[in-house]
Amino acid sequence: xxxxxxxxxIDAGIARGTLLAIVxxxxxxxxxxxFAVPNTSYELHLLPVGEVKxxxxxxxxxxxxxQARRIDVVGTGGQYVEPLIGRPRxxxxxxxxxxxxxxxxxxxxxxxxxxxxxxxxxxxxxxxQLVSFDVMDGATIREA
Length: 144
Known about the structure:
By secondary structure, the chain is an all-beta fold. The chain has one domain (15-143). Helices cover 0% and strands 49% of the residues. The protein has no helices and eleven strands. It has strands at residues 15-23, 32-36, 43-48, 59-73, 80-82, 85-86, 90-99, 102-106, 110-115, 130-135, 140-143. The radius of gyration is 15 Å and the shape is globular.
């Protein structure tokens, strides 16, 4: 449960969680944040877009964006992000809506994904469809 409970309605495309850490850039990797999702074991490593004003241990709300290799409509399954800890590599969830070239997917947390397969466009997917896709390296979060 989100603590404290929100008192105003928040857009379904906005991810809500806790900022666990801001990891500085090194010789082998770019700077990233560790984002914890409430009521799950998820600790997602995401590249920040712009300055992150939240401090570790505090609430962070933002838009998570990713590029999908190919988005497939699936018949069964649940909502998940793999792996639990680290950068997102595989996502499955329900389409919330489309926004321009992106499909907003509820995978336990909302993720805005852009298909990179030239044969696919966001408007090919309908609200309520269960979709699954591999995520390319470089998923980001932009603080809301």
